[in-house]
């Protein structure tokens, strides 16, 4: 058991931001930017929308993408399906390298599995540095989970803040519901989640 993650999971709630997440990157360096979805939708619904929180996450990713272009940093864009839908609608200029999505008949994919898919792709391409973009209440757990997989994580310049009453997952409807979900998920991260 990782005692550091256990302690942080019980006592830490405010995510860090970095005004210049690409500051340590040299020109032509390669960094992954990973978009963690917050509002879930039904993949079988042809009229589905990504949701406001995922639109915010997509916008933050687009800002990083444009900033990387100016800095001549190569971004590997990996994003959960709902955030990919938001990117395609609002920021089609952003090139997505891999959509992290449900497998088979599963309705939702866990954060641990999303980051596992991201790590599997990035490790094959020798990319170990990442910026994890998420909702502000999900950001720390996503960062810790990414670090458990092996990423060196740089905080983004900001996080999404909208909740998702339209989501198919009840725990993203409001802050109180997500707080209880987050505490359960942190316990799972510490006690059960282990990279394969």
Protein described:
The chain is of the alpha/beta class and 196 residues long. The chain contains six helices and five strands, in the order αβαβαβαβαβα. The protein has helices at 3-11, 52-71, 81-90, 111-124, 139-149, 175-191, and strands at residues 30-35, 74-80, 98-100, 129-133, 152-154. A five-stranded parallel beta sheet has the order 3-2-1-4-5, with helices on both faces. α1 (3-11) packs antiparallel against α6. The mean pLDDT is 91.
Instruction: Tell me about the largest β-sheet.
Output: 5 strands, parallel
Oligomer: single chain
Strand order of the largest sheet: 3-2-1-4-5
Give the fraction of residues assigned to helices.
40-55%
Can you count the helices?
A: 6
Task: Give the N-to-C terminal Cα separation.
Answer: 15 Å
General shape = globular
Low-confidence stretches: none
Mean of residue pLDDT?
91
Rounded to an integer, what's the Rg over CA atoms? 16 Å
Amount of beta strand: 5-15%
Helices and strands, in N-to-C order? HEHEHEHEHEH
Count of individual beta strands: 5
Structural class: alpha/beta
Short description:
The chain is of the alpha/beta class and 196 residues long.
Labels describing this entry:
single chain; 196 residues; alpha/beta; five-stranded parallel β-sheet; 5 strands; 41% helix
Itemize the secondary structure elements and their pairings.
Layout: H1 3-11, E1 30-35, H2 52-71, E2 74-80, H3 81-90, E3 98-100, H4 111-124, E4 129-133, H5 139-149, E5 152-154, H6 175-191
Helix pairs in contact: 1-6, 2-3, 4-5
């Amino acid at each position: 058991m990782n005692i550091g993650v256990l302690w942080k999971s019980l006592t830490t709630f405010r995510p860090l931001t970095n005004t210049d997440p690409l500051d340590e990157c040299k020109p032509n360096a390669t960094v992954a930017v990973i978009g963690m979805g917050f509002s879930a939708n039904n993949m079988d619904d042809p009229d589905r929308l990504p949701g406001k929180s995922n639109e915010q996450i997509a916008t933050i990713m687009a800002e990083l993408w444009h900033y990387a272009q100016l800095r001549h940093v190569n971004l590997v864009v990996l994003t959960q399906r709902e955030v990919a839908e938001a990117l395609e609608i609002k920021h089609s200029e952003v090139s997505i390298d891999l959509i992290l999505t449900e497998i088979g008949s599963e309705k939702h994919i866990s954060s641990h599995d999303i980051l596992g898919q991201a790590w599997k792709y990035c490790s094959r391409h020798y990319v170990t540095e990442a910026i994890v973009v998420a909702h502000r209440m999900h950001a720390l757990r996503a960062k810790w989970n990414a670090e458990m997989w092996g990423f060196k994580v740089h905080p983004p310049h900001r996080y999404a803040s909208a909740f998702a009453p339209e989501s198919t997952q009840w725990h993203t409807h409001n802050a109180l519901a997500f707080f209880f979900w987050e505490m359960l998920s942190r316990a799972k991260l510490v006690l059960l989640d282990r990279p394969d």
